[in-house]
Structure formats: C-alpha cells, structure tokens
Amino acid sequence: GDSVTQTEGPVTVSESESLIINCTYSATSIAYPNLFWYVRYPGEGLQLLLKVITAGQKGSSRGFEATYNKETTSFHLQKASVQESDSAVYYCALGGKGFASALTFGSGTKVIPCLP
Amino acid sequence: DAGVTQTPRHEVAEKGQTIILKCEPVSGHNDLFWYRQTKIQGLELLSYFRSKSLMEDGGAFKDRFKAEMLNSSFSTLKIQPTEPKDSAVYLCASSFWGEPEQFFGPGTRLTVL
Q1: DSSP class of A29
Q2: Average model confidence (pLDDT) across chain A
Q3: pLDDT of residue B53
Q4: Which of A46, A47, A100 sits opposite B99 (nearest CB)?
Q5: Could you tell me if residue A49 is left (phi over 0), alpha (psi between -120 and 50 degrees) or otherwise beta?
Q6: Is the dihedral angle over the CA atoms B42, A19, A31, A95 positive or is it negative?
Q7: Which one-letter DSSP state was computed for residue B62?
Q8: Residues 52 to 71 of A: which have CB under 8 A from any B CB?
Q9: Are A102 and B56 within 8 A, CB to CB?
Q10: Under DSSP, is residue B61 helix (H, G, I), strand (E, B) or coil?
Q11: Residue A98 to residue B50, Cβ atoms within 8 A
C-alpha cells in the first residue's frame, strides 16, 4: 500500500531560524500522486497548508514551501524564518490523481518554536 | 460558508455501548471521508463516499464500524459495540468531486471506558 514517512517530532527550533520537515512517500497504486501538507494549530482542526499536484512544481503558503520531487519521492516542507505562530503539528499526505480519494498521512511532526 | 460540522465534539461511552457520530459536509461537496486518528496508528481511513455511494471501506474496520450517508448533506458513523481500543479522534472530511483538497471537521473525541 501507499505510505508516507516524515520527520519524527517534536522539533524545537529557535524563532527566526530555518525549519525543514522531511517527507518521503511510497505510492504503489498511484504513479504521480497529489501531495499535501496539512497543519493543526493548537485548539483548531486540520487544515490544508499547501498542495502540489504536478511533479517538479513548488507550492507555498504562509512562508512555507515544498517541492514535489518524483526522483527522490520527497516533499520536504521548509520555512526560512520560524515564528511563534508556527507552533503546530504538520502532516505530510498523498492522494490519488484525477479524482478525490482517501489521503494517506504521515505520522505528523510537532514544531515548537522557542526564544533564541 | 459553513465548514464541515461534526457532533458531538466529545463522547464518553461504556464498553459494549453503541455510539453514533454525525457529520455535515461542506454544502455542495460530493465526496465524504471518515478517518480515525490515534497516537499509535496516526490517521487512518474508515470510509469514503462519493455522491452517497460507498467507494472505499477500511478493511480493518468493517466488523463494528458502519458509516452511512443518509443524504448528500448528512453522514453518520456507528460503532457497535464499542471497545476501549476505539478511543480516538474521529475526523470527517469532504471535497468537491475531482478536487484534490479535502476540508476537515473539528473531530469527535471518543473515550471508551
């Protein structure tokens, strides 16, 4: 079956420092899946952060970006300067193409910004 | 516009009880998903409906879990009988047909004693 592996948390990062959360996927039933990053802020529901549906493309939102790399089957999430408001759990996910399908999620990475 | 609505937000049940969780998708969405989230297993698919037809049913959950779409704007997830291992957060999500993004509800936290 399909699977997603991401950086185990929690990840503590100093405010204004850069962040990278690694995500690699295995899509046995889908040649080029859609890739997503979802985020859950404290006290809120799961929401889409960004998505990329074409290999080689980059998605960006709220200062975060991720590039769909089909050669390395990776979709790492990066941010140049972390803020306190980025405290959340981040989930990498993949889904089918051409139709809505169930998502396969990674285990989630909790990010904890701290004062430098 | 209203997002995905789930009720109740919290549920406590005794082992062996029957519980019913409810979900209202975003108006106009054709696809509806039920997921379960636990610390050990993470997010797992329970059921997936397209225009009220069951498209996918998580194999591991068939015996005691039954999801239904009573109409295009209302779905239920019944767990019968409940077991302590069912304690988890149950998430409902919906999307437009053909669109990759799913919109999630706030979830129902179920505790089975």
Answers
A1: S
A2: 93
A3: 85
A4: A100
A5: alpha
A6: positive
A7: T
A8: 53
A9: yes
A10: helix
A11: no
pLDDT value at position B51?
84
pLDDT in tens, A49-106: 999 999 999 999 999 999 999 999 999 999 999 999 999 999 999 987 655 578 899 9
Q: State whether B102 and A100 contact (CB < 8 Å).
A: yes
The rounded mean pLDDT for chain B is 91
Query: What is the SS3 assignment for B60?
Result: helix
Predicted confidence band of residue B1 (pLDDT cuts 50, 70, 90): low
| B44 half-sphere exposure, CB direction, 13 A CA radius | 17
pLDDT tens-place string over residues B13-34: 999 999 999 999 999 998 999 9
Task: List Cα–Cα distances, A33 to A93, A96, A100, B63, in angstroms.
Answer: 10, 5, 11, 30
Partners of residue B56 in chain A, C-beta under 8 Å: 101-102
Tell me which residue has tokens 């089975």: B112
Tell me the mean pLDDT in the region A33-47: 93
- B97/A45 CB distance under 8 A: no
Rounded distance, CA A63 to CA A98, Å? Answer: 28
Task: Spell out the long-range contacts of A65-69 with Cβ–Cβ below 8 A and sequence spacing 24 or more.
Answer: A66/A23, A66/A35, A66/A37, A68/A35
Residue-by-residue DSSP string for B22-52:
EEEPPTT--EEEEEEEETTTEEEEEEEEETT
